[in-house]
Design brief:
Pfam family, one: CBM_14
GO molecular function: chitin binding
Keywords: Chitin-binding, Disulfide bond, Glycoprotein, Repeat, Signal
Order of helices and strands: EEEEEEH
Number of domains: 1
Protein name: Chondroitin proteoglycan 2-like isoform X2
Number of helices: 1
C-alpha cells in the first residue's frame, strides 16, 4: 500500500475556488515535483509521493517521472 506523509505548510495558500467552485483539491507544488498540496477547508497540507515518483497534476496521482515531465531543477 502506498503511504503518503503529510506536513503542515507555511507559504502555500489554497485557492479560493478551483474549476469546480470548490477550494478543496490537489495541487502541484511549484517548488518540488515529488510533493503536492492537498487543500481541505482552506488549509494546505504538503504530501510526498513515495519511492522516486512525482506528482502528475493531469491525473492527480503520483506517477513515474517519464510520465510527468517535471522541469523544476534539482
Amino acid at each position: 500500500m502506498m503511504q503518503l506523509y503529510n506536513i503542515f505548510v507555511f507559504g502555500f495558500t489554497c485557492p479560493y475556488e478551483n474549476n469546480e467552485n470548490n477550494p478543496n483539491g490537489l495541487y502541484a507544488n511549484p517548488d518540488d515535483c515529488s510533493t503536492f498540496y492537498q487543500c481541505s477547508n482552506g488549509e494546505p497540507y504538503l504530501l510526498s509521493c513515495p519511492d522516486d515518483l512525482q506528482w502528475n497534476q493531469e491525473r492527480l496521482v503520483c506517477d513515474y517521472p517519464e510520465n510527468v515531465g517535471c522541469r523544476i531543477p534539482y
